[in-house]
Amino acid sequence: MRIINKFLLVTLLFSLGACELDLVNPNAATEEQVLNTKDGLISLAVGVRQLYSTSVYGVAVLYPSITTRETGAMTTFSSLEELEIGGVNLNGTNERVTRLFSAVMRVKGMAENLVAGAENVSLSDGTRAGLLAYGNLFRAMCLGILAQNWEQAPILNSPNNDAAFSDRAAVYAEAIRILDESVKAMEGTTLPAELAGPFGEIDLLNTLYAYLARYQNAAGNHDAAIAAADKVDLGATSYLTYDGENSNPVFSGFFAGTVEYAPRTNFGLPDGLLPDPGDKRIAFYMNIVGNTSLYGGLPVEELAAPFFTAQTASIPAYLPGEMLLIKAEAYARKGETGKAEEALNRVRQKKADDDIYGLGAGLTSTYSSGGDQVALLNEIYKNRRAELFLIGTSLDDSRRFGRPEPPTSTTPDFTSERNRNFYPYPDNERESNSNTPQDPPI
Known about the structure:
about 450 residues; globular
C-alpha cells in the first residue's frame, strides 16, 4: 500500500513542473529520491498510468473526434466551436489544441523518466524488464498520439525547452523501435508480483503487441503489422481503469455537467459509406434519438457503449477487432485480396458473443470486392469507423485512406469529412521553444 499511496505525490512532482516540454521541477531532491529507488519507480509507473488514463486518453479521443466528424459539439464554448470549424480558422491559440499537446508531452516526459530510472536503479531482472516495457508502452502511446495529430513532434522531451522536432515518420519509427524492444524483452518473462497491482488491469504483453501492430500499420509496414497483429490474443482483456475520484474522461465529455459531445449518426460516415442497417455496432455504440449538434446542426445520437456510460467504467486499451482490420488493410495494400477479405469478413460477421467486449456487427452477408482494391479499402475504412468508434485513430485513418481534403475557405463547412489534416502547434510552445515548426496550412 505504501507504493500505491505514493503515486499521488509522484504524479504531482512530474506534472506541476512539466508544462509543455519543460520538465524542470523545483523539488529536485524529492524527484531524485523517486527516480533512484524501486518503490519510487513503481509509484511513478502508477502515476504514468493514472495521468495517461485521465488527462491524455480523453482529449486524444474527443478532440480528433470533432475534427473527423465522429462527434458533434453540443456547447457554444468558443474553443470547441473553433475545433468544429477547423480549417484555416483553427490556430495555435486554441485552448484544446494546447491542452492535447501539453498533456501528451507531460505524460511522455514521465514515461521517459521511468525508463531512465529503471535502467539505472538496482532491480531484479523481472522488475527491470517490466518497468522498462511499461514505460516504453506509455511513451510509445504518447508518441503515437503526436504522430496521429501533428506533422512533426519531439521524440524526446527537453528540460531546457529546446526539444528538437522530428517528422511524424521518425516519431512512428521510434514508437515502433521501443515497442519491438519491449516485446522481445517481455516474451517469456513472468512479471513479479510486486508489479501486478501497479499495472492494474493492463495486459502488458498483449497491449505491446497491439500498439506495435497499430503503429506498424500506420507507418505502412504491412508485413510487420500483420505479424504483430497475429500475436495478439483476441480473447484477452486489457483495460484503462477509473474510480470515483478519477473519472472516465469520455463519460465526462458526453454525460457529466455541461455535455460537450454527442456521437454522429452512422458514425459520421458519408452517404457512400453508410453502415448496413442491420449492423449491430450501431446499437452497441449509440441510442438513436435523432438530435442535432448545437453549432454545426449535424445529426447526432446518444452514446451507449458500456465503455463510456459510467464514471467508473473501464475502457479497453485496444479492441480485438482492430487487429483483424489491421490485417485486412495490410493485406489489401499488398494486393492479397483473398486474405484481406477473409480478415474483413471476420469483423463484419463477428457476433457479440464472439467478442470479449460484446462488440459485434453480426452481419450475415459475405463481402467481396470483385478484385477492386479501392472498393475493398473503402469497406475496410467504413468498418474501422464502426468497429473502432472513439479510439482516437480517426484523423490518421482519414488521411491514410485518402478521404477528401479539408476545405480551405474561411467559411465554415460542416459537410466536410474532416476539417483539418494536422493540428497547428500551440502558440505557447512556439514562444518557449524556437524549434517549433511552422503550422501546416490545414
